[in-house]
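User: Sequence recovery, please. Input:
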């Protein structure tokens, strides 16, 4: 097997490799990917620093053309890249292809943004003096990504970084280097000058840490766990650099007595279990008022029983495997914790065997849970959800907001009054009415509050806030 190498200063390099394993079939090696060390990371940072002045001055048409080309190629190869994504991460083929299309749309969006860069010209309060407000690149941007969206998250960080004239050192998650390698290869061939985009695959504690420790990384955008996010924050404060964190969630989905039951059940099923529950926007707390509780639990359990869990590449599969053995262990441990805490395991939670050896888990639903249990407070990051019964809307809202996190939140209701009140009062960055808690479009801001996020929003035109720095310039007329 050929080794997919790191890209440093325009050269493919790296002889030591790790195997990328398919979670639907652990006998299958998806590919070999180079493992960078701390020196590789430092070389990549030096290359990005050297390339930064010229790229900052590059023409907007050059940037537009490269981002457009990347978008076109990703879209043309969506089946192949979607299959690669599903092979390395385990989400279903439909989800893998959908995420690949989204990555193409993100590159297309930011290709357009290069042509919409604008500033402001205003008069000073002093006579005969003009003021210009412009945005400039930040410099070298470090990008550190998690395993659960192997192509969309790299795309939504790399595309704006390049669009606004920054150079990049990119470290993807160890478990899913395939899609990251593919988009770096595509951008490299699309004509990026050497050093503008560098790829260093490898361990977070080695490669990621070298990025955190470098005074030459001017900004770091991070998506991943709270524990790593805190390290990114501490190191960034130390180096006085800009940083942005997208971390965990414990997202609530409220179901009120007046909800359309079918809408509520479909949204809950999707929120809690699709993509194997491995979404930061997944809902693991289903907060249900007492009048609809029993009907909701019965209907959701019935739907869960009909869902097909299997090999991600089988077109009939609806829920793929868990990403690896340690995540599976974490999911099973939390199922045990929930039982011991006194919640009732109403459905699922068993490890499943399929034709190929993989990390298959039947989605699990707890009932009789309360919001103080660990299964209601800690992020599990698997297909495990709990139903918390409440008296009325006021209690539902209070329970929904009683969490350390604040990424996404949802409500199923036919009441305009409650929908409007929930939109205004949910303590979350994103609110969904009669829709799953996941599924934010690529052209609108993505992010949360409280323990879920820090810094400015990602995606859409809001991304400019992080990837640029504002300059105010005066001229005497
Ligand atoms: P993780 O924190 O273990 O790893 C994330 C990235 O950080 C990886 O690339 C890893 O190699 C790197 N890393 C690890 N240690 C590091 C260090 N010392 N220095 C620098 N980098 C280091 O998270 P994960 O397990 O890959 O992802 C799952 C988590 O991501 C979940 O908590 C999930 O909620 C979160 N997530 C959040 C969002 C969001 O937008 N809020 C989106 C997706 C995933």
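Assistant: Recovered sequence (477 residues):
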């Amino acid at each position: 097997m050929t080794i997919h190498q790191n890209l440093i200063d325009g050269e493919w390099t790296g002889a030591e490799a790790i195997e990328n394993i398919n979670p639907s079939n652990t006998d299958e090696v998806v590919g070999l990917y180079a493992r960078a060390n701390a020196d590789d990371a430092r070389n990549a940072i030096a290359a990005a620093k050297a390339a930064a002045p010229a790229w900052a001055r590059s023409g907007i048409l050059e940037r537009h053309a490269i981002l457009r080309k990347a978008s076109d190629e990703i879209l043309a190869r969506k089946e192949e890249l979607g299959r690669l994504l599903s092979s390395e991460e385990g989400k279903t083929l439909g989800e893998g292809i959908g995420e690949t299309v989204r990555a193409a749309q993100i590159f297309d969006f930011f290709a357009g943004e290069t042509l919409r860069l604008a500033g402001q010209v205003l008069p000073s309060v002093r006579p005969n003096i003009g003021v210009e407000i412009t945005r400039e690149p930040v410099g070298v941007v470090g990008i550190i990504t998690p395993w659960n969206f192997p192509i969309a998250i790299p795309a939504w960080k790399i595309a704006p970084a390049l669009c606004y004239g920054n150079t990049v050192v990119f470290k993807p998650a160890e478990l899913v280097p395939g899609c990251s390698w593919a988009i770096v290869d595509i951008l490299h061939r699309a004509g990026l000058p050497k050093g503008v985009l560098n790829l260093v695959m490898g361990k977070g504690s080695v490669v990621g840490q070298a990025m955190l420790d470098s005074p030459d990384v001017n900004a770091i955008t991070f998506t991943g766990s709270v524990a790593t996010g805190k390290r990114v924050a501490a190191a960034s404060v130390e180096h006085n650099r800009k940083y942005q964190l997208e971390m965990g969630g414990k997202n609530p989905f409220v179901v009120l007595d007046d909800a359309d039951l079918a809408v509520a059940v479909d949204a809950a099923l999707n929120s809690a279990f699709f993509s194997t529950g491995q979404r930061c926007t997944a809902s693991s707390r289903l907060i249900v008022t007492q009048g609809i509780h029993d009907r909701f639990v019965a209907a959701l359990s019935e739907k869960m029983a009909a869902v097909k869990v299997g090999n991600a590449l089988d077109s009939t599969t609806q829920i793929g495997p868990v990403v690896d053995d340690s995540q599976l262990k974490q999911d099973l441990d939390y199922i045990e914790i929930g039982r011991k805490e006194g919640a009732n395991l109403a459905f699922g939670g068993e490890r499943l065997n399929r034709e190929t050896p993989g990390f298959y888990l039947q989605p699990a639903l707890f009932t009789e849970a309360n919001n103080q249990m660990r299964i209601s407070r800690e992020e599990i990051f698997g297909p495990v959800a709990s139903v918390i019964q409440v008296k009325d809307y006021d209690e539902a809202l209070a329970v929904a907001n009683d969490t350390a996190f604040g990424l996404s939140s949802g409500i199923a209701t036919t009441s305009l009054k409650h929908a409007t009140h929930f939109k205004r009062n949910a303590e979350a960055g994103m609110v969904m009415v009669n829709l799953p808690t996941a599924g934010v479009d690529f052209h609108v801001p993505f992010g949360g509050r409280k323990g879920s996020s820090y810094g400015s929003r990602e995606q859409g035109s809001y991304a400019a806030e992080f990837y640029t720095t504002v300059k105010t310039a005066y001229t005497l007329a």
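The longest strand covers residues 25-34.
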